[in-house]
Amino acid sequence: MSLAVPAVTRHRRDPINSLMRIWGVLVYVFLFLPIAVIVAFSFNTGRVMESWTGFGFDGFTLAFNDENIIDSVKTSLIAAVGSAILATVLGTFAGIAIVRRKGRWVPFFFALVFLILVTPEIVDAIALLIWYVRIGGPFGPDNPIPVNFGLIRLWVGHSLFSAAVVTLIVRARLEGLDESLEEAAADLYAAPVRRFTQITLPLMLPAVLAAGLLSFSFSLDNTIISNFVNTAEASPWAVYVLSAVRSILRPELASMSTILLLLTLFALGLVVLVLRRSGQSGEEVAATLTGGG
Q1: Based on CB atoms within 10 Å of each CB, which residue in 10, 89, 136, 228 is the most buried?
Q2: Domains identified in the chain and CATH numbers
Q3: What is the SS3 assignment for the chain?
Q4: What's the pLDDT score for residue 26?
Q5: pTM over 0.85
């Protein structure tokens, strides 16, 4: 026999639910309104972004015809790809070690990972600048490697935070996988390299790809470290914008920012798509992206 909920109780709950919905909408408006403003003013035809004169695509045309903007965006993309590869490799093997080689060292390593996540970025930036200057080598103008030393600085600096995020994402994925397949392969005398490439890696590949795409988007957004470790030959988009806002905000800055925003959203969309196609539910996708077990 089912018990009907009194009408008085239903009427009392409705205003609370309505208020919570309104509050949720206000929070989203507060978070996304600045982004909406940038996107809207990217279509401003005026020479100053804050002064709206009309709707058009002049900002996009000027952005793609400005060599300084194009060079800074290219530097950001190269830095993002390089740092994503470096962070993915380091974080992947760190996540595997945490799950498959448990021991007394794991709590200390976890503490180190979370210390990287909570350390203020300005502290990392100052430490990296001092470190680069002192060790020189590939991080200085006397770089023996035929690669722009400014890019090497950006790759290493951007990969610090991303490697910690990758570690947590890969660890979350491996925690949910059954180790019996790897043990069965070992019983059949499969070499460790073969067990990794044919069993472990395919099972955790969606998380690795998702972590790599997140690392890519994190690098595009990195401003503080980029501002401290960049060089004249490798100045990313974030540093260019930071220098430009000290004078006049031009519509082409908003236009290029809108394009990079769409690129970031595309990368994040690929992350969700890869995880969903691997069979994860919405809750599991959220847990994987946040490093939850």
Answers
A1: 228
A2: 70-289 (1.10.3720.10)
A3: CCCCCCHHHHHHHHHHHHHHHHHHHHHHHHHHHHHHHHHHHCCECCCCCCCCCCECCHHHHHHHHCHHHHHHHHHHHHHHHHHHHHHHHHHHHHHHHHHHCCCCHHHHHHHHHHHHHHCCHHHHHHHHHHHHHHHCHHHCCCCCCCCCHHHHHHHHHHHHHHHHHHHHHHHHHHHCCCCHHHHHHHHCCCCHHHHHHHHHHHHHHHHHHHHHHHHHHHHHHCCHHHHHHCECCECCHHHHHHHHCCCCCCHHHHHHHHHHHHHHHHHHHHHHHHHHHCCCCHHHHHHHHCCCC
A4: 93
A5: no
